[in-house]
Design a protein that fits this description.
This protein is of the alpha/beta class. It has 2 domains: about 20-170 and about 330-375, D-Maltodextrin-Binding Protein, domain 2; about 170-325 and about 385-455, Periplasmic binding protein-like II (D-Maltodextrin-Binding Protein, domain 2), CATH 3.40.190.10. It is built from 19 helices and 9 strands. Helix 6 crosses helix 15 and helix 10 runs antiparallel to helix 11.
Length: about 450
């Protein structure tokens, strides 16, 4: 049986989605006009003949972190389609509550958010979700022009069942004071070899050149993903991709940096529960390959007191000229309940939300998927009143980049393969087997698991 690739569960790709998965802490409300609101345009209003309806919208983000402002803005301009927002907690109990409501149709939402491929797949397969293609056509939503069709999964029947509202943008965050200290400029396009070289330059005294949160990422999988963003861990013939030169390079890069003292060893980082935000913002690491979501911690000077600015660089590439962004890709999947009596009205709200309404979500760290969104305004909303702590020009440059995001729709037995990768990777980083034996064991075990899953 085929399953979707669950990157957060396996730690293969940076888990920006884990941090932005609907458990955001309260932040300031958005302010995308001088008056502090994101106003719906006239085109977003329904026709005057629209019969008044109430749309229920469930999501995982706290109302005060953006959703309530977005809903209020819509309701002020659209009296015939009233939207009510309800937060459900994005954990096992919360997801069960949502799915029970969808299946029983008892006080069920018309619109709901799913966080992760595993969640939306389960809901589509269980008949909870309405196909969107006809609704998209009726409101004239330009999937390619606004989001990019390649960034949205079509299911086996060839239809859309969600539209993503949040873009998890990966980036390398760098202590700019440390960068200035070694006389280097902010990278604008670079390879993993150049990343390693800069890490060595930034390494000084108690300050490491770089680090990884072992719960969220590793250089082996990051480098492999920049070489093959689609179904990273399998090849075109369906076997595992664990004999890839890119994976070998990534694992060797991490071990060489650990052995040279340029980053904390994997075992120490794991046992010490090191996080990107703590190591970067306490000056213990000069740069981290993570994602934009860390801005929320940069601005939290109460928890992370610091006075040095953070600059942003794009994710390094396996080959020069690449544009793969391993930050997590698209998220916040907006869907319509299959049993909703107000599907067309719900789609009108989704159309507006994806074009402009979700600018209210930006201060909390959620980046709109709209390719036409004003990136300068997004950067300013993200920064807020923390101009001295965030390098605006480099942030805006990263936000404005055109990227290929990883997708993993066709990987059999993803959890099992993820566990194999983790076990063999740890043996290598802990010096219990060499790189060739590691890759050989990874591939052999993964190929056998794939073969078994396809029976």
């Amino acid at each position: 049986m085929k399953k979707t690739w669950i990157s957060a569960a396996t730690g293969f790709v940076l888990a920006a989605t884990m941090v932005l998965s609907g458990c955001s802490s309260s932040t300031q409300n958005a302010s995308s006009t001088p008056g502090g609101s994101t106003k719906p345009t006239e085109s977003a209003k329904p026709a005057d003949t629209q019969k008044p309806v109430t749309i229920k919208f469930w999501g995982g983000v706290q109302p005060e972190s953006g959703p309530q402002e977005a809903v209020d803005n819509w309701n002020k301009a659209n009296p015939n389609i009233k939207v009510e927002y309800t937060r459900y907690v994005n954990d096992d109990a919360g997801n069960l509550k949502l799915e029970t409501a969808l299946l029983s149709n008892s006080d069920a939402p018309d619109i709901f958010m799913s966080y992760g491929d595993d969640k939306i797949t389960k809901r589509v397969q269980s008949g909870m979700v309405a196909p969107l293609d006809d609704l998209i056509a009726k409101v004239g939503f330009d999937v390619e022009g606004i989001i990019g069709a390649a960034n949205i999964r079509k299911f086996p029947d060839g239809k859309y069942y969600y539209l993503p509202a949040n873009k998890n943008v990966g980036a390398v965050l760098i202590n700019k004071a440390a960068l200035d200290e070694v006389g280097e400029k902010i990278p604008t396009a670079w390879t993993w070899d150049e990343f390693a070289a800069l890490a060595k330059k930034l390494n000084k005294g108690e300050r490491k050149g770089t680090m990884h949160d072992p719960q969220l990422g590793n250089f082996g999988m990051q480098v492999l993903t920049t070489d093959k963003p689609a179904d990273t861990v399998i090849t075109a013939d369906g076997t595992s991709n664990f004999n890839s030169p890119a994976l070998k390079k990534g694992l060797e890069l991490q071990k060489s940096l650990e052995d040279a003292g340029v980053m904390v060893k994997y075992s120490e980082a794991f046992s010490g529960k090191l996080t990107y935000q703590n190591e970067l913002l306490t000056g213990k690491a000069a740069m981290v390959s993570a994602a934009i979501y860390l801005i929320r911690y940069i601005k939290d000077t109460k928890s992370f007191p610091h006075d040095f600015p953070i600059a942003f660089a794009p994710i390094p590439q396996y080959k020069a000229g690449g544009n793969v962004n391993v930050g997590g890709g698209m998220g916040d999947y907006m869907s319509i309940n299959k049993n909703s009596a107000n599907k067309e009205a719900a789609m009108k709200f989704i159309d507006w939300y994806l074009k402009e309404g979700n600018m209210s979500m930006v201060p909390g760290g959620r980046i709109p998927t709209n390719k036409k969104a004003d990136q300068a305004k997004i950067a300013q909303l993200l920064i807020g009143d923390s101009e001295k702590l965030i390098d605006k020009a480099s942030l805006q440059a990263v936000l404005s980049g055109s990227y290929t995001y990883p997708t993993s729709y066709n990987v059999p037995a993803p959890v099992e393969i993820g566990q194999i990768y983790k076990e063999e990777m740890e043996k290598y980083l802990l010096n219990s087997q060499n790189i060739d034996k590691t890759l050989e064991a990874m591939k052999s075990r993964a190929d056998a698991t794939i073969k078994s899953a396809k029976k």
